Amino acid sequence: MQKLIITCAISGAEVTKAQNPAVPYTALEMAEQAYLAYHQGASIIHLHAREDDGTPTQSAERFRIIMEAIKKRCPDVIIQVSTGGAVGMSRDERLQPIVLNPQMATLDCGTLNFGGDDIFINTENDIIYFAHVLQERAVFKELECFEKGHIDSVLRLVKKGHIHAPLHFSFVLGVNGGMSGEERDFMFLKDSIPSDATYSVAGIGKYEFSLAKLAIEHGGHVRVGLEDNIFIEKGVLAASNGELVKKVVTMAKVANREIASPAEARQILRMEK
Ligand code: KMH
Ligand code: ZN
Fold this sequence. Notes:
Blueprint: E1 6-9, H1 27-40, E2 44-47, E3 49-50, E4 56-57, H2 60-73, E5 78-81, H3 91-95, E6 104-108, E7 112-113, E8 119-120, H4 124-136, E9 140-145, H5 148-159, E10 168-173, H6 183-190, E11 198-203, H7 208-218, E12 221-224, E13 231-233, E14 236-237, H8 241-254, H9 262-269
Parallel strand pairs: 1-2, 1-12, 2-5, 5-6, 6-9, 9-10, 10-11, 11-12
Antiparallel strand pairs: 3-4, 7-8, 13-14
The chain binds (5S)-5-amino-3-OXO-hexanoic acid and zinc ion (ZN).
Residues 13-14, 82-84, 86-87, 106, 108, 114, 120, 144 line the site of (5S)-5-amino-3-OXO-hexanoic acid.
């Protein structure tokens, strides 16, 4: 089996310090949380930017400052910039950090309810627009799929020439409004992607570690982090993103799966830069 790539979603756009005080807002806090995750074995940092008061922002300047701070602490880590941003942001607002030519970014592959009155909008034209911008700048894309229809959309857009290989999927399961993260859901999705594609799972809330275990056992990759889940175990807040990563590393050891370094992750995903 390939070595295990661990992504850590350190900050998110929605989770707050009131929910877990370890959620980072400032550049220094972001760098510290990224370092703790990287030190435990994360090779990719999935990044949302915040203002110092916690307000989500897609400002390129804010991303630049935060990415510089992270690079100082973890020079070789892969930073995966979010182009999802927060619910309600426009296409161009979400795409702002791409001017920084990050190595990697997310490409959200469909619309879904996001709890309450929120709708995370990614129309077919949005997906095509984002895909072309990422392609033009040679930014490696992670295809965020919140349910099976999103995978089908990707495969259709591949046929139409809008999305190009290598295909690396992220199954984000358990969002309030998306597909749940039971074993049957995981099996269905992993069997729905092309055999030469790679995938990672991001289980929201209670699904974080059960999905991680399945992905470890089936040759997939794993994302954890405070964006997705604030607890290390039922009712116990995680002390840091590092603690969440450490738990996955322990699970991987039990399953005899080695952890990929950032350089190995680049090779496994067939990244060009
Ligand atoms: N904050 C969510 C609305 C991504 O990073 O690309 C979208 C999100 C997906 O987190
Ligand atoms: Zn995100």
